TrEMBL record:
Keywords: Metal-binding, NAD, Oxidoreductase, Zinc. Its cofactor is Zn(2+). Its EC number is 1.1.1.1. It is an enzyme of class 1 (oxidoreductase). This is alcohol dehydrogenase. Residues 43-156 form the Alcohol dehydrogenase-like N-terminal domain. PANTHER family: ALCOHOL DEHYDROGENASE 1-RELATED (PTHR42940:SF3). Pfam families: ADH_N.
Length: 244
């Protein structure tokens, strides 16, 4: 009897040079770099290079020990980036396949991938969702936070493609803004979902004052300084740019 090989359901993306993620261990300790050479991807997963991660109040609460966390973990959940590689079933919120080079923004939570709801693709019903930037580092999902050169987006994450011209500082916080019910832009109503927030910013950004379009950014190796800077001035928007 003739058999056909099973379709490739998982594959590993090898990274050369290795991805770097900054690992948080405990309050008062500097973040430490971790190298990741290989990322195992399921069909709905994607690997994204981080363009910019903005610093959130919850990142600051975490490093001070004001939020409970299971360390070690990779902080950062407000980002924009570009797809490096994607599984055969990795799609955006419109069901469009993710392609290498797509500029994307994503939600702060990822479905667990293991429960009955996840098994039937009902991602939004998952009651055990994981949160980017808040998960203990574990084998196979080391790149779970955005203070890193790359992030591993799990199947079922809300992913929205965006216009390359939109300043990264406007796109990066949108996932967190939507989850927290904050407006995408000052003086507007909160968007109901991530897609709406991204489209709103795409329409409006050219009319914003220039100070809204920039952030104080530091390279990934200086993430501790970026966190300290975000702490000292509420008004400054501070980000980490892993490409610099
Ligand atoms: Zn946030
Ligand atoms: Zn689940």
């Amino acid at each position: 009897m003739k058999t056909t090989p099973a379709p490739l359901s998982r594959f590993s993306a090898r990274l050369e040079p290795a991805a770097t993620a900054m690992v948080w261990w405990e309050p008062g300790r500097r973040l430490e770099p971790m190298a990741v050479l290989e990322v195992p991807l399921r069909p709905g997963d994607s690997l994204v290079t981080v363009e910019l991660s903005t610093i959130c109040r919850s990142d600051l609460a975490m490093i001070h020990g004001d939020l409970s966390a299971s360390a070690p973990l990779v902080l950062g959940h407000e980002s924009v980036g570009r797809v490096v590689t994607a599984g055969s079933e990795a799609v955006d919120v419109d069901g469009e396949p993710l392609r290498c080079g797509d500029r994307v923004v994503w939600s702060i939570a990822a479905p667990c991938g293991a429960c009955a709801d996840c098994a039937r693709g009902a991602w939004h019903d998952c009651l055990s969702a994981r949160e980017y930037g808040h998960e203990r580092v574990r084998a196979g999902w080391e790149l779970s936070g955005a203070f890193a050169t790359h992030i591993h987006l799990r199947a079922g994450t809300d992913i929205v493609k965006s216009d390359a011209a939109v300043p990264a500082v406007l796109l990066a916080p949108l996932g967190c803004n939507v989850a927290a019910g904050r407006p995408a832009l000052p003086g507007t109503e909160p968007a109901s979902d991530l897609r709406s927030a991204v489209r709103q910013v795409e329409r409006a950004w050219r009319h914003l004052p220039s100070r809204e379009l920039t952030a104080a950014t530091l390279p990934l190796s200086r993430v501790d300084e970026a966190l300290a800077l975000a702490e000292t001035d509420d008004r400054a928007r501070v980000g980490v740019d892993p490409r610099s």
